[in-house]
Structure formats: C-alpha cells, structure tokens
Amino acid sequence: MIDLELLPQEELEALSDAGREVMLCTRVLAKTGDTMVGELLRGAGPFYEWRHYPSNDVYDPEYHAQYYYHAHPPEERVDGEHGHFHTFLRPLGMPEGVKPLDLPDLKPDPDGNDALCHLVGISMDKAGRPIRLFTTNRWVTGETWYAAADAVRMLDGFVIDHARPSWPLNRWITALMRLYRPLVVQLLQQRDATIAQWQQDHPDTNAYEDRALEVTSEAYVSVEEHISRVELAMRRLRRRQREKRGVA
Predict the structure, then answer these.
(1) Residue spans of beta strands (DSSP E) within 39-106
(2) Which domain of life is it from (predicted)?
(3) What are the structural domain ranges in the chain?
(4) Mean pLDDT, the chain cut into blocks of 10 residues (248 residues total)
(5) Which residues of 30-46 are buried (b: 16+ CB within 10 A; e: fewer)?
(6) Cα–Cα dist 215/194, whole Å
(7) pTM score, whole prediction
(8) Up-side HSE of residue 189: CA atoms within 13 Å toward CB?
C-alpha cells in the first residue's frame, strides 16, 4: 500500500480533486440508476465477449487519449468482474522525447500516431464499480512497448475531453486515472520488472509475445476507501502545517 502521507502537497491535492470528480460523476449517474459501464452499453444490443465497446473505441483527437471496454469469457475473469477498460495514449499526445523501446521486432509507425502505449486496465464489477487495476504484456493489446519511466510521463496526458459516448463517463475515467496515479506508477514499474524476470527465466522465448504471460501487475482497489485515505492524508498534512506555524 502506498503511503499517501509521503506525497508532496501538490500531488495530494490533485488526488483529492480527482476523488471529488470521480464521486460527482458517480453520484450524477446513480440518481437515474445508471453506471459507468451502462453508459457504454446503452443501445448497444446484446453484450458480446471480446467485442469493443464502443465499436470504434473512444478517442480524443486533441489529447490523443483512447479507451475501450470489453469482457473475456467468464472463466477468464477475476472474481466479481463484469469486464474492463483498457486505456491508451497515442504518440501525438505523448511528452517530448518519449520513444518506444528499441526492441528487435519494433514495428514502423508510418503515420506517426499508431505506436500507442497501453497505460492500465480497469476491471469493473457487475454494479459498475472499479475493483482492480492491472497492466498487461505487449501481445494482449497489440501495443508498442515503452519503458515504464516513459509510460509514467504519459499518465497526465490521458484526458478525454468530449461528450461521446458519455460526458460523465469521460470525466470519470479521466479523473480515475488521476486519483490512482501513484498506484499506476507502481504497477508500471512492476510490469517492467515482471517482463525482465520472465525473459531471464525463459531465455528462449520473446517475453513480450509469450502467451503464458498475460497480466504483468495488478492491485485490487476500492474507490471509496482510497478517497478516504486521501482525505485523511490531507487532514493530517493541514494539521502538521498548522502545528509548524504554531497554530492550535
């Protein structure tokens, strides 16, 4: 568990703001009995395993962030999971100086915006609540591989700032990425460590394409508990600041 009280004040305040945004979007939908997943599936007809929802993904042409939702067969889902979001950033939205890892099978990117990076997966339960964050091996999403340090630099660029397929959903997933940023950083670092160890243990395989390695890091989450921890860390920070100024 990440010690939130060790975070700088600016970052802690950003988490707190993101938590309020997440809860606002959740509350607005709950008033009409809706959920984040329901926003995607409304009017989509029968829900099919593996199909992307929406069919052409959600993409913001200004920030070049992208996501979709889908589900695996029941036997491949974690307990309580309905499906999960996959989140990405495309090259035109990446910070300056970021480049793919120079692997032997690195594919060219003719139009300069295809070499997308998978950031994190977000598992959702049947009630439409996040229950797990996870990272995946390269073959899972067909991404281009970027080192964790570069992927971390991309996190603040994940912004979906339009109203389709749902304004509350787009605001929610943008804020959720902010709320869990410290954990996603940790998961991306663990992802690289897992890949490196796998390659060492299986020297005759291409670790990035090995179907035996799918999930490279994961953490189960509770949004409400996490927001409570953020707010507790904020209260303790303010108390320390008052004590430092000599204010009771």
Answers:
(1) 53-59, 65-70, 81-89
(2) Bacteria
(3) 7-238
(4) 90 97 97 96 94 97 98 92 98 97 95 97 96 98 98 98 97 98 98 98 98 98 97 93 78
(5) eeeebbbbebbbeeeee
(6) 9
(7) 0.96
(8) 8
